[in-house]
Design brief:
The chain is an alpha+beta fold. About 50% of the residues lie in helices and about 25% in strands. The chain has six domains: about 220 residues, Rossmann fold; about 100 residues, 2-Layer Sandwich (Beta-Lactamase); about 100 residues, PAS domain (Beta-Lactamase, 2-Layer Sandwich); about 110 residues, 2-Layer Sandwich (Beta-Lactamase), CATH 3.30.450.20; about 80 residues; about 140 residues, Heat Shock Protein 90.
């Protein structure tokens, strides 16, 4: 690079002393030179004083980073606040600057976090509302410097790039650089401005250098230093000053000869020195008399030679009184002989060590005092003491406060503890000790002992990371109780720092969250059950927050619409998946419900993304706040496609059944005739015979006067009873041949529930019925068989079980229907279960066999009987389809 006119280039390193002239040369003291030099991190520049304003001409982006990265690294290492203004997208972005600097400064994130360095875009520094504002930038330097000094930094280091500078702004920017040059003098600040060589001609380089103390540039691997005329002039003046200094050395040598002559005069001046010494002695005496500590001098013979006023004021005796009355001051201040011997031993043996004593003063009060004894080489000693009564009282108050605080910490329902920076436990409260059963010593020896083994690796790794970061954190772990039980705890840990920011201790609390964890687990289980129930019932739920317009759907509702979870976020997202002909109905129904704060229910069609169409039934309710304003709408939507199809099929089947009904009418009439004839012949004959017997009984009773007639009457009554029982058996037989009405009207699930209620009402035996389905996939034949087996089982319970409770469970899962009936009676025996005369059990097994079911009857003596019946639903469904 050639040397512009008026500039001088040096390939050598800059002399920092050449830049440190901050004022005119003093004829007696020489030039005023700044004593403190700052490391720049740039080898060609070396160390510079505060107030340096220089520039750097670069060819490439890498040239720029090669200079600025070590420049700012040195500033961060030397407690300087750093400010880097980049050209951003024109050359170097903020992210590129951070990335380059992070490679040289490993802990850059910490510096960025505590704002030791700022990296700004040129728009954020030079522009305001997209207009160049150099006045703002100039004030920015001053504000940043003041803030840096207030925060304890030694000064400020800055750099700003000009790659973005347009030709039209050059004149104003040059004037701004001159202002910075004038302002930076005597400031604790260093500024390096960077200019691209590609945009800098000879004129621009001349302008730039004149606005700076010097400039540096590297071309073809060689560094060049460009000095301004002012700097060259300063160097010449410094050279001249050095020549003058050499001349002054010669002159000073001659002056020393004259000084020897003046030594004679010093003898005469000794008197003046003695006067000053007496003055100093007086000053020391004043200090001795007024210093707020007790001082006494003891001679080699052990007698007190001198005391100050504070000593006399505190103890109550003057030195003159002690001498006149020949007082033993030690006996007066320490009347107890044994304690006095301890004090005297301290006086004679202590060497610069402070010790506390209880000292009695003249008015009888006992003060807390602290003394130190300093022995001199001539055998004398100096005693220094102070009244620490107030300090002791404060310490006692503090100790009581600490005891109170410790009591509070020990009684709070939370486990508290503290750890030193090296990880050693130094405190646990009583709650911790009571829970873990460990003492503080045991906790120090093995701090992970109460922690669940599975949690220890993760905890130690987290502690290692957080200790380096030094930030508060929390985590959930399991801690063992003294009895061996593990419970979940939320552990919160926070560091305590000193004034310099160093961590001096970690404090933490462990909060028992076992109940919350169990509640969360139950909640998850309930949510899973709800999702399963919704999936089985094809019912999806939803919630619409009217204030935020946010909508929440359950997984089943997404399945009904054929959408991926998370597709619907706000109200209105789902309208495109509703049949166009139903969209107005949906909007008007929901809008009207919200306006009137009322429930709603309607059907509409869903168009899935795959093109299939489903029919949905939606029910909703509106929730209001305390002012009656609608704030939320929630409800459920059920996929009723199959139900609607079934209704349509039912309508078609009804028409077919009407035709079939005509042909069955005759068969029903014939069956009614047969039942009527049987009731008339058998039941009527039995009742007629019963009437005749009753008439005969009436005649006998009216004529009977002797015992024989009464005996005959009794036999008649017995016969009537037998006939009545026979009649009832006939009625039961006829009724059992008819199909149960509850089964036809209600279905198997409801019929079983009705039978259970009837049995409990009739017998007084408690019945618990459990069924997780509204219907089961069994045909009519199977449902009848199941119902008859249930009836027979309940009859056996009533007659033989001696039970007080019966549990009926009916469910269908994994292609299998299961009915269980369990009582708490005596338990069926093996002989009863397998006996040839157990006709009821044989009938139950025969019914099960005819429908392809499996039945097990198990009895446990004293604990009851269990009847379990299983039917393969898939097989039954196939048979039903064939029928």
């Amino acid at each position: 690079m050639g040397s512009p006119v008026g500039l001088h280039l040096h390939p050598d390193r800059i002399c920092a002393r050449c830049l440190s002239v901050t004022g005119p040369i003093n004829e007696t003291e020489g030039p005023v030179v700044a004593e403190e030099l700052r490391k720049t991190g740039i080898s060609v520049v070396g160390d510079l004083p505060w107030g340096t304003h220089f520039c750097h001409f670069y060819e490439t982006k890498q040239d720029l980073l090669d200079i600025l990265v070590p420049y700012f690294k040195a500033g961060l290492e030397n407690n300087e606040f750093c400010l880097w203004v980049v050209s951003d997208s024109e050359l170097v972005t903020v992210e590129e600057a951070q990335g380059a600097l992070a490679q040289a400064v490993p802990d850059l994130d910490r510096h960025l976090s505590d704002e030791s360095i700022e990296i700004l875009k040129r728009h954020d520094w030079y522009f305001e509302q997209h207009a160049l504002n150099l006045e703002r930038a100039k004030h920015g330097w001053d504000a940043r410097l003041k803030r840096a000094l207030a925060r304890g930094y030694e000064g400020m280091r800055a750099s700003a790039d000009t790659f973005w500078l347009a030709e039209k702004d050059w004149k104003d920017f040059f004037a701004y650089e001159k202002q910075v040059q004038d302002w930076i003098t005597n400031q604790s600040m260093t500024v390096m401005c960077t200019y691209p060589l590609a945009k800098s001609g000879a004129t621009e380089v001349l302008d730039v250098v004149q606005a700076h103390q010097f400039a540096i540039a590297r071309r073809q691997g060689e560094w060049e230093v460009i000095e301004s005329p002012q700097l060259m002039q300063a160097k010449a003046e410094i050279k001249k000053v050095n020549e003058e200094l050499e001349q002054r050395v010669v002159e000073r040598t001659n002056e020393l000869r004259v000084a020897n002559e003046e030594l004679r005069k010093e003898i005469a001046e000794r008197k003046q020195a003695e006067d000053k010494l007496r003055q100093q002695k007086e000053i020391l005496q004043q200090i001795f008399d007024h210093i707020p500590v007790m001082i006494n001098f003891v001679g080699a013979d052990g007698r007190i030679k001198l005391v100050n006023r504070e000593w006399e004021r505190t103890l109550g005796w003057s030195l003159e009184e002690i001498r006149q009355q020949n007082l033993d001051i030690f006996a007066e201040c320490y009347p107890d002989p044994e304690y006095r011997q301890q004090v005297l031993k301290f006086v004679t043996e202590a060497k610069g060590r402070w010790a506390d004593f209880k000292t009695r003063v003249r008015d009888g009060r006992v003060l807390d005092t602290s003394f130190v004894r300093i022995h001199l080489s001539d055998g004398t000693s100096i005693g220094i003491g102070k009244d620490i009564t107030e300090r002791k009282q404060a310490e006692d108050a503090l100790r009581q406060s600490e005891d109170h605080l410790r009591l509070v910490i020990d009684t709070i329902p939370t486990m508290a503890w503290s750890i030193r920076p090296d990880g050693v436990v130094d405190f646990v409260n009583q709650r911790w000790i009571d829970y873990t059963g460990l003492s503080l010593e045991e906790e120090i020896e093995e701090p992970t002992r109460p922690i669940h083994p599975e949690d220890i690796p993760g905890i130690m790794e987290r502690w290692k990371v957080e200790r380096e970061v030094g930030a508060p954190y929390e985590e959930e772990i399991r801690l063992r109780r003294a009895g061996g039980e593990y419970r979940w705890f939320l552990v919160r840990t926070a560091p305590l720092r000193d004034d310099r920011g160093n961590i001096v201790k970690w404090y933490g609390v462990s909060i028992d969250i076992e109940d919350r964890k169990q509640a969360e687990e139950k909640l998850k289980h309930s949510e899973v059950q709800l999702a399963q129930a919704q999936r089985l019932a094809h019912v999806g739920s939803w919630d619409w927050d009217l204030r935020t317009n946010k909508v929440t759907w359950s997984e089943e509702l997404y399945r009904i619409f054929g959408l991926e979870p998370g597709t619907i976020m706000v109200a209105g997202d789902a309208i495109s998946f509703i049949h166009p002909d139903d969209q107005d109905l949906v909007r008007s129904t929901v809008k009207g419900a919200v306006a009137n704060k009322e429930r709603y229910s309607f059907y509409y069609r869903v168009l899935r993304p795959d093109g299939t169409e489903r029919i949905a039934h939606s029910r909703g309710a509106v929730l209001t706040d305390e002012r009656g304003e609608a704030i939320r709408v929630f409800g459920a939507t059920q996929d009723v496609t199959e139900l609607k199809q079934a209704e349509d099929d039912l309508k078609a089947t009804t028409e077919q059944l009407r035709a079939l009904s005509a042909s069955l009418q005759s068969a029903r009439e014939q069956e009614s005739t047969r039942i009527a004839r049987e009731l008339h012949d058998e039941l009527g004959g039995a009742l007629t015979a019963l009437r005749w017997d009753l008439e005969e009984v009436g005649g006998v009773i009216s004529e009977a006067t002797d015992p024989k007639q009464l005996s005959a009457l009794r036999k008649k009554i017995e016969a009537m009873t037998t006939l009545t029982g026979t009649t009832l058996d006939i009625i039961r037989r006829i009724a059992s041949e008819l199909r149960p009405m509850a089964l036809d009207e209600l279905g198997l699930v409801e019929a079983v529930e009705w039978q259970a209620r009837q049995f409990q009402t009739r017998t007084g035996i408690a019945v618990e019925y459990e069924c997780s389905h509204e219907k089961v996939d069994l045909n009519s034949e199977q449902s009848t068989a199941v119902f008859r087996i249930l009836q027979e089982t309940l009859t056996n319970v009533l007659r033989h079980a001696q039970a007080t409770e019966v549990t009926i469970t009916m469910k269908q899962e994994a292609g299998e229907f299961l009915l269980t009936i369990k009582d708490n009676g005596r338990g069926i025996t093996e002989s009863e279960n397998s006996g040839a005369h157990s006709l009821g059990l044989l009938g139950m097994r025969e019914r099960a066999h005819l429908i392809g079911a499996q039945i097990d009857i198990i009895g446990i003596e004293g604990k009851g009987t269990l009847v379990a019946m299983r039917i393969q639903v898939s097989a039954s469904s196939e048979r039903q389809k064939k029928v």
